[in-house]
Design brief:
alpha+beta; six-stranded antiparallel β-sheet; 9 helices; 41% helix
Length: 337
């Protein structure tokens, strides 16, 4: 948990805001060339660190306001698979459904192919980290987990998840046996990898079900009725994990421990109460949800993410996503058990 006065990663001591920026005429022209539609209006771009044209946009097509994500084809495919999984619950107010995908898989920009995912635009804000917001998030994720529980794609997702996790473990073991071959791996990460064996990850799949898998601050928005809305389900196709994963992510990214902040114990009580109300017979499957397991999962998550970075870096033959390495090393150290 955070000490008084500390805020979640990637934010300073102010409430994050959504800022929309205008585009230059050349940028507008390029986007309309890449994704031709006779009814496009002017595009606006969300102020993020993404390199143009990747990122998040809004525009009008006829009279419909749209939210558009421009991503790599691989990410688009993952997003589409995730949207397919949640298609059975698109009636929920807690999910913003995919409208359609516009792909330009044959168009190269700076040697990178691109794709666009289009959603109905909803007026939203990011969290203000208040007790009310945390309560809404807790209620929303309980309802989302309930809807995803015993989903029709559960067996497929479980297979993909176990395949991915086993692949990471195999790569980790191979790395441990030949660390000298990979001098580019940060020494701090090496020490972290040496501190554990694969049993450390067992909590990931304890009472597993399909979950969201990436509940960072940017993927939880609040609509005009102050209801939590979840977006970005690209990790869901390989997220057959304990619900502790999502709950630990929320507590890690959203909690500021202080006099006006909801406590972890209260957060879990609200979650369990909501899940039990939705499915009274689920009480037994929720017995593993405890403060101690959440705190353990807060350390497992960055370790798991470091294993993903390890596999990608070894495949590339060099350290890639260096800032991500530093981010998850800090997250691991901050949640030292």
């Amino acid at each position: 948990m955070y000490k008084s006065g500390e805020f979640p990663p990637a934010f300073d001591c102010s409430t994050p805001k959504l800022s929309w920026l205008g585009l230059t005429s050349s940028q507008q022209h390029l986007l309309k060339q890449l994704f031709p539609c006779p009814h496009w209006g002017k595009w606006k771009r969300l102020d993020t660190s993404h390199q143009f044209p990747f990122g998040y946009y809004q525009c009008y097509a006829k009279e419909q306001r749209l939210f558009i994500k421009i991503v790599s084809p691989d990410k688009a495919i993952s997003c589409l698979k995730g949207e397919e999984i949640v298609s059975s619950i698109v009636h929920s107010e807690h999910v913003n459904p995919l409208l359609k995908a516009l792909s330009q898989l044959n168009v190269s920009l700076q040697n990178t192919n691109i794709a666009a995912l289009v959603y109905p635009f909803i007026s939203t804000r990011l969290t203000n980290f208040s007790n009310d917001d945390i309560s809404q998030i807790t209620t929303g994720i309980a309802q989302l987990h309930h809807s995803l529980y015993r989903n029709i794609n559960e067996e497929q997702v479980a297979t993909l998840c176990h395949k991915k996790l086993n692949g990471l473990i195999e790569q980790w073991i191979a790395y441990q046996e030949n660390t000298q071959q990979f001098p580019f791996i940060p020494s701090t990460a090496k020490a972290i990898f040496n501190n554990h064996d694969e049993s450390f990850l067992h909590l990931l799949t304890d009472n597993a079900q399909i979950i969201h898998g990436d509940l960072n601050v940017g993927n939880v928005l609040f609509n005009s009725c102050n209801k939590a809305t979840f977006i970005d389900f690209e990790n869901t196709p390989t997220s057959y994990f304990s619900v502790l994963f999502d709950l630990a992510y929320i507590s890690e990214r959203f909690f500021v421990k202080g006099s006006h902040q909801i406590e972890l114990k209260t957060f879990l009580q609200i979650y369990i109460k909501q899940r039990t109300a939705l499915a009274p017979t689920s009480t037994k499957s929720l017995q593993h949800i405890s403060e101690s397991n959440i705190l353990t999962m807060q350390k497992i998550i960055p370790f798991y993410c470091l294993l993903i970075l390890l596999k990608k870096s070894i495949k590339a033959g060099e350290l890639i996503f260096e800032s991500e390495w530093h981010k998850f090393i800090k997250m691991y150290e901050r949640n030292r058990i």
